[in-house]
Amino acid sequence: MSLKEFFFGFSDETRAAFPNLFINHNIDRHQCRRVVPMEVLSLGMGRTGTTSMAAAFALLGFPTSHGGADMHSNPLDGDIWLEAVKAKYQGDTSVKLDASFFDKALGHVSACADYPSNMFGPELIAAYPNAKVVLVERDADAWYPSFERALIRGQDLPAWFRHFLELADNTQKHVQPVIWRGMMQGQFGAKDSIEWRKKAKDVYKRHNAEIREVLKDQPERLLVYRLGSGWEPLCEFLGKPIPDVDFPRVNEKAQHDAMIKVFIVQQLQSFLLNMTKTGGAALVAVIAWRWWSQSPSA
Predict the structure, then answer these.
(1) Which Gene3D superfamilies match (predicted)?
(2) pLDDT per residue over 251-291, tens digit each?
(3) Whole-model pTM?
């Protein structure tokens, strides 16, 4: 995409490349129930090929949630996941993380991947005892740079500015709290992005070890999958025939960087609309330039 799309609207090419960013289903999951069985829990952390795995599950016939993408096409998803965050990490006893809860959040899919579902591995494993579990592992040193670039850097913004984003942009209002309260403060136990960087690798290793530990007495439920292994181990594990297409290999770094460009422009357009109403357009113009010049691949 080009900078002119900030001023003149997104091209058909950009819209086709990132359809989730241009849809708002506006579905309140609190009103939902399970309509298909939960069959596959892909609990690897973000930046372990979650987009490729989600595409693979879909090709195998599983309606699939890639949580990070889904919250952009249905920002209200963030609200129900924030309730789960409060229950697990903040001591809120009003919500029980069992099948009845997850059937609302994930009742429309048979497989899930990426955050926020991967923050609730033990709970999902207990809620769905018949579901198979896939854990994609990468070497921690290889995983970290990608994770840091994609997720931690976004929290380098001052807290006051993150709150401003939530007020100024509808998607951020629902999604951002799940990232900084759920992932950063909850899953990684970090108060800020500096501490998040220090803890990231250790928490990543503990996460993978925890999934293994939970399933140590049910080894038949777990597949530890290595990226690049192709269809055979996955299809054998899930009891599916091997498709007549190559295993999806999404260039997640390139796709993520391009998506972030589009997402930033969308936010800035939203800011501009809101700030213009209060005489703040000049401030938004400065922010737009700084974000554009410092964003990935700028």
Answers:
(1) P-loop containing nucleotide triphosphate hydrolases (3.40.50.300)
(2) 666 766 676 676 667 666 776 676 665 555 555 555 555 65
(3) 0.84
Residue 298 vs residues 64, 162, 259: alpha-carbon distances, Å: 32, 22, 12
At residue 274, the pLDDT reads 66
Residues in the chain: 298
User: Cβ neighbours of residue 201 under 8 Å, at least 6 residues apart?
Assistant: 140, 141, 143, 144
Cα(120)–Cα(81) distance, rounded to whole angstroms? Answer: 10
Residues 133, 125: Cα–Cα separation, whole Å: 8
